[in-house]
Design a protein that fits this description.
This protein is α/β, with parallel strands linked by helices. The protein folds into 3 domains: 2-165, Globins (Globin-like); 174-273, Elongation Factor Tu (Ef-tu), domain 3, CATH 2.40.30.10; 290-428, Nucleotide-binding domain of ferredoxin-NADP reductase (FNR) module (Rossmann fold, 3-Layer(aba) Sandwich), CATH 3.40.50. The protein is 44% helix and 17% strand. The longest helix is centred in the N-terminal third of the chain and has 32 residues, at 23-54. The radius of gyration is 22 Å and the shape is globular.
Length: 429
């Protein structure tokens, strides 16, 4: 915890030494922001096509599913717009900068990647806007991008150094052996990972994630995916619990990496991964009760938090609220029920939207349907708590709005959104 908080303070120091944009160029950037907002996604879609054509090696870094769904171009458009709109004082969007920086470090984005983005982003702006992108406009945006990229390069340099210097830390990808696989439900499987070199592993803060590199037979490119760590720190392994993403409607194929992990990887196989990262983590210094809310596989970080709280803060009052379709896809159900029985301060509350008759008869369901503000107000004795939530985007939206409507202060609302790495969390507002 101390190393991570020290790192966050260093990031804030970065903003104090970033150079300022020339006033004339600043005015040009400001005056063209509405154009960027209007054409942002078109520009970023073209940017990715342009960049991958000239630098196909970057296909080994970027999630191609997010390209197909449009999540990545939208996220980049939002990120560029927000950074440019706040270029005079980027401390206003520090949480978003930290979130992106953590993603970049985990994915091994390096200083040499930024000029490639610069060249292709400015090229895309020119090609999409045509005559509207004059040399004066492009020059101003080139300087703006240089400042924005300088912020990230400096921040991420601190992150790399801190990550490698911590006990058990490492740089780049490190090989881990799958010690065992455990089925947690019909669609979620846990992977227990131990370092191949037998050395210590870095401690993490409950809620953080790792990035794995999947080298799949028959695939030209490697695939990077981020998964929350689903057990507490302080043990000799990392655990991830992965949902098998089956084929969906709208031409969205089955998840390449999740299918690979479920169907091809077995105990004894190797998974390269980067050190734990992420700005969604449990605040162990708060005296308030903790409310953990999750939907579907979004329970992986909250399970880590629950396990850590019981092990390290056994007197802490905890409400574990999980929403799932039914018991067949509900991972860690027996584990959480057992913890609640053994620890009076822990309350387990389950919500199913498509329960079976057996589920209804079992009495395990606290609510049939969905999480709502009115229901939260009924089951929680007070709103004075720290809230942590993760799940599908619709679930995230509902919970976030409910807590805000209830008047929960923003500094007590914490969430993880696993969109593309440029996401500025607008998806859940």
């Amino acid at each position: 915890m101390n190393n991570f908080l020290k790192q966050k303070n260093e990031w804030r120091e970065v903003l104090k030494i970033v150079k300022q944009l020339d006033p004339k160029k600043l005015e040009i950037v400001k005056s063209t922001l509405p154009i960027l907002k209007e054409h942002g996604e078109t520009i970023t879609k073209h940017f990715y096509q342009r960049m991958f054509k000239s630098h196909p090696e970057l296909l080994n870094i970027f999630n191609q599913t997010h390209q197909k769904t449009g999540h990545q171009p939208k996220a980049l458009a939002d990120a560029v717009y927000a950074a440019a709109a706040n270029i005079e004082d980027m401390s206003k969007i520090m949480p978003a900068l930290e979130r992106i920086g953590e993603k970049h470090r985990s994915l091994q984005i390096k200083p040499e990647h930024y000029p490639i983005v610069d060249e292709n982003l400015l090229g895309a702006i020119k090609e999409i806007l045509g005559g509207g992108a004059t040399e004066e406009v492009l020059d101003a945006w080139a300087d703006a991008y240089e400042i924005i990229s300088d912020v990230f390069i400096r921040m991420e340099s601190n992150m790399y150094k801190t990550t490698e210097a911590q006990p058990g830390g490492w740089g780049g990808f490190r090989d881990f052996i799958i010690d065992k696989k455990v089925d947690e439900s019909e669609i979620i499987t846990s992977f227990y990972l131990k370092p191949k070199d037998g050395q210590d592993i870095a401690r993490f803060i409950p809620g953080q994630y790792i990035t794995i590199k999947a080298e799949i037979p028959g695939q030209i490119n490697t695939h990077l995916r981020q998964y929350s760590l689903s057990d507490r720190p302080g043990v000799d392994y990392y655990r991830i619990s992965v949902k098998r993403e089956d084929e969906k409607e709208n031409d969205i194929p089955a998840g390449i990496v999740s299918s690979f992990l479920h169907h091809q990887m077995k105990a004894g196989d190797i998974l390269p991964m980067t050190a734990p990262a992420g700005d969604f983590y449990l605040n162990t210094e708060s005296p308030l009760p903790v409310v953990l809310l999750s939907g579907g596989v979004g329970l992986t970080p909250t399970i880590s938090m629950l396990n850590a709280l019981i092990a390290e803060q056994p007197e802490k009052e905890v409400y574990f609220i999980h929403a799932a379709r039914n018991s067949r896809v509900h991972a860690f159900k027996e584990h959480v029920e057992g913890l609640a029985k053994e620890n009076k301060q822990v309350k387990s509350i389950f919500v199913y939207d498509h329960p079976s008759e057996e589920d209804r008869k079992s009495g395990v369901i606290a609510k049939e349907g969905y999480v709502t503000l009115e229901w939260l107000q009924e089951i929680l004795p007070t709103k004075e708590a720290d809230y942590y939530f993760c799940g599908p985007e619709p679930f995230m939206r509902v919970v976030n709005r409910a807590l805000k409507q209830w008047g929960v202060p923003s500094d007590r609302i914490h969430y993880e959104f696993f969109g593309s790495f440029g996401d500025l969390a607008a998806n859940v507002e």
